[in-house]
Structures are given as C-alpha cells and as structure tokens.
C-alpha cells in the first residue's frame, strides 16, 4: 500500500490566483498511475489557508468538557433550511501565528477562547481536513483542565470572536454528537477519538 511518494508527481506549473488569508493556486501536473506510465497533464485548484490546532478541554475530576458556541459564516451559507443555526458547538481551535509550535497554539487558544490553562496537553492525532482541494492539516490535542475556571464569555474582539463557553458533562456532549448537534469535522473527530481513548485519562 502507498507505494508512491512525492517523487511520483510532476508539477509543471503553479500559478497564484489569489493571495491572502485564503490563498488559491492553480497547478498543472501529472502523476504516476497504478497500472504504470504517467497520467495525462491535468489542472487542479488548491486553497492554502495554513494549518490549525484543535483542543478538547477535558476535566477528568468532573468528567466534563468545555464546549464553545460561536458564529461561523460557512455554516450560514451551507444551511439547507432556516432551522439550521450558524452558531456551532465546537472545541477550542485556532491557526498558527508565525513560527509557533502546535503546542504553543494549543496553549494560546485555550486561554483566549476559554480562559483556561493546562499543564497536561496530550496529542491525539493530525488529519488533512479537505485534501481534495485544500492544504490544511489539523492537529488535535486533549487538555486536562479545571473546568470551574472557564470563562462564561471569551474571544478576541480584534478577531471578531464572540464565544459563549459551556461546561457540560461528558455524556451530555456525547449525546449532542449522537443527535447531530455537534457537526463540524474537527469537533466530531476529536470527540470520537476521546471516546476511544477516554480510559487513559480516567486512570491518570
């Protein structure tokens, strides 16, 4: 499996279409085929928006999670009907700022978006969010926190963030997931990972 590598792709041309927070490039390329030889030359557009970190703030003493509620423009435009709220239930998340490490992003965003700090940050996994047309990689961490210290409202006004912070029992959050009320990819993946590995935090 996965016998090919980057050396099996030929990028013939890379043309910038838009530079900014969401940069878009058009590529002309070809790659090796499973049955041998090379593919015809074809074009793809790809968006480069940088990489991100997601943090699930978990309080093992109270068996509680800190969940954020905030407005998302993508959810507004994607809504199939008027009953779908563009205010999503999510976990702490943010983009890299300069040369930060993933752990530095996690600590910074945890404080900015929930008012929390942690001395125990556990790496869960990394994944490509939409590799068919975007370069973004998301790294997910579990942060052990004291949920009683969470703010009620948080976010940076300079980034137009208005965040309502909820502290909920773990099983209530799982129920929200099962009801489809937590429906953004990073939160779903992170919570499902925690469901698979929760015992390791209970044993600490």
Our Rg estimate from Cα atoms comes to 20 Å
CATH topology of the largest domain: the name is: Nucleoside Triphosphate Pyrophosphohydrolase
CATH class of the largest domain: Alpha Beta
- Count of structural domains: 2
Give the CA-based shape.
Answer: globular
- Based on the structure given, which CATH architecture of the largest domain is correct? Alpha-Beta Complex
Q: What is the CATH homologous superfamily assignment of the largest domain?
A: Nucleoside Triphosphate Pyrophosphohydrolase
Detail the poorly predicted runs.
Answer: none
Question: How would you state the average pLDDT, rounded?
Answer: 93
What kind of sheet is the major sheet?
8 strands, mixed
Order of helices and strands: EEEEEHEEHEEEEHH
Tally of strands: 11
Ends distance = 37 Å
Helix share bin? 10-25%
How much of the residues is beta strand, in percent? 35-45%
Helical element count? 4
| Helix-and-strand structural type | alpha+beta
GO molecular function, one term: ADP-ribose diphosphatase activity
Domain Nudix hydrolase: 48-190
GO biological process, one term: nucleoside phosphate metabolic process
Catalytic activity: ADP-D-ribose + H2O = D-ribose 5-phosphate + AMP + 2 H(+)
């Amino acid at each position: 499996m996965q016998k090919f590598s980057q050396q099996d792709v030929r990028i013939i041309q890379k043309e910038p279409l838009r530079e900014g927070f969401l940069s878009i490039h058009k590529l002309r390329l070809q790659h090796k085929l499973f049955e041998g030889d090379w593919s015809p030359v074809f074009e793809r557009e790809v968006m480069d928006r940088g990489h991100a970190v997601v943090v699930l703030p978990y309080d093992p003493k109270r068996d509680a999670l800190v969940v954020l509620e905030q407005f998302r423009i993508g959810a507004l435009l994607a809504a199939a009907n008027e009953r779908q709220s563009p205010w999503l239930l999510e976990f702490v998340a943010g983009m890299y700022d300069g040369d930060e490490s993933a752990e530095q992003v996690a600590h910074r965003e945890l404080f900015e978006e929930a008012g929390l700090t942690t001395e125990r940050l556990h790496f869960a996994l990394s994944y490509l969010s939409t590799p068919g047309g975007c370069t973004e990689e998301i790294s997910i961490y579990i942060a052990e926190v004291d949920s009683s210290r969470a703010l009620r409202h948080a976010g940076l006004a300079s980034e137009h963030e208005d965040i309502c912070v909820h502290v909920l029992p773990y099983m209530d959050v799982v129920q929200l997931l099962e009801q489809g009320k937590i429906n953004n990819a990073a939160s779903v993946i992170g919570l499902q990972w925690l469901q698979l590995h929760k015992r390791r935090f209970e044993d600490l």
